[in-house]
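Proteins fold reproducibly. Next comes a concrete instance:

***
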Amino acid sequence: MVSIEKSTIATRVSRELRRRIVAGEYPVGMKLQQEQIASELGVSRSPVREALHQLEAEGLILLVSQKGATVAPVHASEVSELFELRLLIEPYLLTLAIPAMTDADFDAAEGIIAEMDNVELAYWGVANWRFHATLYRPAARPTIMKTLEKIHETFDRYIRLQIALTDGRWKAHADHRRILDACREGQAEVAAALLRQHISTAGSELALEASQRQTDSAIMDT
């Protein structure tokens, strides 16, 4: 049985490795050496191994017997599925949430939009989730929210990639503003439609980029 202390250390290690992957400090295909990571973070190899298994379950790394761990590629099919889930869940939550929204919710969302003007790219995904979560939380569906948060954590690096490759920061900013304005006006159908378009566009752009990268990788491997 893994001790609580070791499990806690592994959680901290997985959080730091996830941050490095999302930020692009560990690029796709990079080999992750357990000994080096353990030395850098001042821990033993045991919590590093546990952290790597956690990141494998999240789809961020690949673990191959006798070969170790590498940062997983971005697959177009996975991107498409994750955004399909968003399209199913998020407009539903927003529609439920709007009648229960208060001025405090609007102000909080407004503050996050302002914050995202200058947020570092490495933390864009985190801020993006906070904005969306602020809009959905009044729906009072905590179990669905936990599932959705996991989905957002999984495609955090994909969102960062999409923002970096398409200069999507300003488009996302404009989308967020329009969605929030529709929420303020109590226009649930309009807000849900804007949200669907927001998610669909981001998903399509990223899936296209991921597909191109897979094609380029396949050409290089031949």
About this structure: The chain is about 75% helix and 5% strand. The first strand starts at residue 31 and ends at 32. Residues 59 and 72 are 7 Å apart (CA to CA).
